[in-house]
Recover the amino acids of this structure.
């Protein structure tokens, strides 16, 4: 009886049947913050909305005061060129392309690229499309830029959660459809990562590797960056030959 009390109250192993073993195991096994707002799935659109509100408002400052944009100088110069000459096609296509790619990538791999999706997409692509269509009010007024940015971010967050539920989080869904190979290929050095993307795709599965190789060859023939072709080829192959989860 004495030994049992000592084990339960001291630093040794809790005695079976005393309840201390279950309590300690539950505490150690619980992830910090699990079940709270910070790790809740529905909180993700809220976080994205807050980020997008700040980024879109930063573009408003750039549009009005020529400073404050949350993006690379080279990317911001595309928007600047559109503001000066009225041609927003390059900025809109570049930013919207990044946004589309990252919204597809995010649900699959579980990581949202803030630089590509929000800073480039919400900060450059969507403003360029709005300005090209003649909607200048959201970028002219600070009080309007914040809610518009928050709305855009919320919609992006909801879309990502919806795609994730329909794919990797669906019943029996374990495939990322080849989207894993997109990670790391979105920065300025991504153009040199074509061979690495192909190797990564081939490591994932043979069909995805073949698709990546074919895509890279097609883009090489069209004199386009290999990385883009390798990624698109891998994703198309992964769509028809899903990678089974471990």
């Amino acid at each position: 009886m004495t030994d049992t009390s000592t084990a339960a109250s001291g630093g040794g192993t809790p005695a079976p049947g005393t309840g201390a073993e279950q309590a300690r195991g539950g505490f150690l096994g619980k992830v910090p913050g699990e079940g709270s707002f910070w790790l809740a799935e529905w909180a993700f659109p809220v976080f994205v909305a807050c980020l997008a509100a700040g980024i879109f408002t930063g573009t408003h400052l750039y549009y009005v005061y020529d400073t404050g944009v949350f993006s690379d100088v080279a990317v911001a110069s595309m928007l600047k060129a559109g503001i000066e000459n009225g041609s927003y096609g390059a900025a809109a296509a570049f930013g919207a392309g990044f946004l589309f790619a990252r919204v597809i990538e995010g649900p699959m791999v579980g990581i949202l690229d803030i630089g590509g999706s929000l800073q480039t997409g919400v900060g450059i692509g969507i403003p360029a499309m709005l300005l090209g269509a003649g909607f200048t009010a959201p970028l002219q007024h600070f009080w309007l830029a914040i809610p518009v940015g928050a709305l855009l971010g919320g919609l992006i967050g909801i879309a990502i959660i919806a795609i994730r539920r329909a794919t990797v989080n669906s019943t029996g869904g374990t495939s990322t459809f080849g989207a894993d190979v997109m990670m790391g290929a979105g920065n300025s050095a991504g153009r040199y990562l074509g061979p690495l993307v192909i190797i990564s795709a081939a490591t994932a599965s043979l069909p995805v590797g073949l698709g990546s190789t074919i895509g890279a060859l097609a883009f090489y023939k069209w004199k386009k960056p290999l990385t883009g072709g390798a990624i698109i080829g891998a994703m198309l192959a992964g769509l028809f030959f899903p990678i089974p989860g471990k």
Summary: The two ends are 47 Å apart (CA to CA). The mean pLDDT is 78. Residues 150 and 219 are 37 Å apart (CA to CA). DSSP finds eleven helices and no strands in the chain.
